[in-house]
Write a structure and sequence with these properties.
By secondary structure, the chain is an alpha+beta fold. It folds into two domains: about 20-50 and about 85-185 and about 230-345, Bira Bifunctional Protein, Domain 2 (BirA Bifunctional Protein, domain 2, 2-Layer Sandwich), CATH 3.30.930; about 355-444, 3-Layer(aba) Sandwich (Rossmann fold). It is about 35% helix and about 20% strand. The strands form four sheets. It has an eight-stranded mixed sheet with strand order 1-5-6-13-12-11-7-10. Strands 15-14-16-17-18 form a five-stranded mixed sheet, sandwiched between helices. Strands 2-4-3 form a three-stranded antiparallel sheet. The longest helix is centred in the first third of the chain and has 20 residues, at about 20-40. The chain is elongated, with a radius of gyration of 28 Å. Mean pLDDT is about 85; it is low at about 1-5 and about 60-65. The structure holds one RNA strand.
RNA sequence: GCAGCAGUAGCUCAGUUGGUUAGAGCACUAGUUUGUGGAACUAGGGGUCGGUGGUUCGAAUCCACCCUGCUGUACCA
């Protein structure tokens, strides 16, 4: 410990930002490897775009265009506003608009990247997180939308989830639009309020949602949320229509047929899902986990979906002359990892290094030659990084969960037979150098 | 943003109606063993008791404001 008490820099992290440790990262890497495997099979191209974009290229859909810092992290560079991307879809639209003439049509791309949101963090929700996106740009064919659902389902199962662990909910923006017509609703703000209310059926139930559609609702903490102020007649019509369990729009009927062709069944029609409010134009889907997720304190929490997507036919058009209908899906990888860690035990092989103990510096040449033999055999190995006494070295090996240490002191060097100590059993063996690799492979 | 609850050592927490120098367990460091880890024993380091201001002879304890965290809610392109 440092004793001086000067002005110390803070060890705390900014709100919503976290250090991620090896255990989590290895599981994340595992998931990424599964994703890549599946993406290649489905014929998607890999793309990377920068973390920053000009605010107006990704800010077309900001609620408040005058303030680019609303929800995003931005700064002014020279005279232009830059923002950290808040998703991978807006940059894709920008990329397609920029490279329209060169790229294949339709354009299928997948992307893994960090995104940043200036919002309140929650359990498993941060202000910086890794997202995975797959999109089809330049086709109206609903086969694309269907295939995204099938594909995401394959990824989840490759990650170890079974059909009962998750469900893909589907709906269409067209259904809500027709509902608004039915109750003669024109006001866009009111429409938004209704969509937001409907989005909460899962979480709050119909009783609360009806309050939100009407005058408003007071929640557990005593906070009051203003409602959409619909008449009770209109609310009743909405409820009746939304409780129908069969889709009433053409696009959904079409997609159901395609699912049949794929023999895909793990979906559920749910007209209450909403997703991005102004962004989507047609089919929308949401990936929901069905198992219980807990926070650090072991309390069950409201986890919500780990991702979703849908059809956004107008996004590319906003950039200029090209009109490219598109559909895509995104998954929050950190959230998926957070949930997955609780669901199942991951046995991810990560070989910890064999530690070669240091007796004296003069023998370093011998230690290094042993180390080279092991490393050449692809065995993770290190010479103890320091000059402590043996006890410390053993404690270190134990702490990093090393499977074994090699003792190669003067006696061993003289006889040419290092001692191998298995740290799980505590047993020691004197071994010929040429047998060392084989013996170690038995242990690890 | 709004609301409820919380903040004492690296972690988990105790701290009586306000009363000397603020405690425990785990972790850490050193030793018992200068060539042997996971156990035990001994010793040790580490806290402006979230911050600031106030009440008081005296505050971790009471009051005000602020900060941070958790949970709910709102927003979430």
């Amino acid at each position: 410990m440092i004793k001086e008490k000067k002005i110390k820099p803070s060890k705390e992290l900014p709100l919503g930002f976290v250090d991620r440790q090896e255990k989590e990262l290895l599981i994340r890497d595992f998931i990424i490897s599964k994703i890549k495997e599946v993406m290649i099979k489905y014929g998607f191209q890999y793309l990377e775009t920068p973390s920053f974009e000009y605010s107006d290229s990704i800010g077309k859909f900001l609620p408040d265009k005058e303030r680019p810092d609303q929800g995003v992290f931005s700064f002014k560079d020279e005279n232009k506003w830059l923002s950290l991307r808040y998703d991978l879809t807006a940059p894709l639209a920008r990329y397609v608009a920029k490279n329209y003439l060169e790229i294949p049509k339709p354009f299928k791309r997948y992307q893994l990247g960090t995104v940043w949101r200036n919002e309140k963090p929650g359990p498993g929700r941060f202000r910086e997180f890794l997202q995975f996106d797959a999109d089809y740009v330049g086709t109206k064919n609903l086969q694309a939308d269907a295939e995204l659902c099938v594909m995401i389902s394959e990824i989840l199962e490759k990650c170890g989830l079974s059909q009962s662990d998750y469900v893909i909910k589907i709906s269409s923006r067209k259904i809500t639009e027709s509902l608004f017509k039915k109750i003669n609703l024109e006001d866009d703000n009111q429409k938004l309020t209704i969509l937001r209310a409907l989005d909460k059926i899962d979480r709050l139930g119909w009783v609360a949602v009806k309050q939100l559609l009407g005058e408003g609702r007071k929640d557990k903490s005593g906070d009051f949320t203003k409602g959409a102020k619909l008449s009770s007649d209109s609310i009743e019509i909405l409820e009746k229509e939304l409780k129908k369990k069969t889709p009433s729009s053409e696009d959904l009927n079409e997609i159901l047929k395609i699912f049949k062709n794929y023999n895909f069944q793990n979906f559920e029609f749910d007209p209450s899902i909403v997703r991005g409010l102004e962004y989507y134009t047609g089919v929308i889907f949401e990936v929901n986990l069905k198992f219980d997720v807990k926070n650090i304190k072991g309390q069950s929490i409201q986890f919500g979906s780990i991702g979703g997507g849908g059809r956004y036919d107008n996004l590319v058009k906003n950039f200029g002359d090209y009109d490219a209908p598109a559909t895509g899906i995104s998954i929050g990888l950190d959230r998926l990892v957070y949930a997955l860690i609780q669901k199942k035990e991951f046995k991810i092989k990560k070989s910890k290094p064999i530690v070669i103990c240091v007796f004296n510096k003069e023998s370093m040449k011998e230690y290094i030659s042993l180390q080279k033999i092991l490393r050449d055999a692809s065995i993770s190995t290190e010479i103890y990084p320091g000059e402590n006494k043996l006890k410390k070295q053993m404690e270190y090996a134990n702490k990093i969960k090393s499977p074994a240490v090699i003792l190669y002191g003067d006696d061993e060097i003289k006889s040419g037979k290092p001692t191998l100590r298995d740290l799980t059993t505590g047993k020691e063996k004197s071994i010929e150098i040429k047998e060392l690799v084989n013996e170690i492979k038995k242990i690890i």
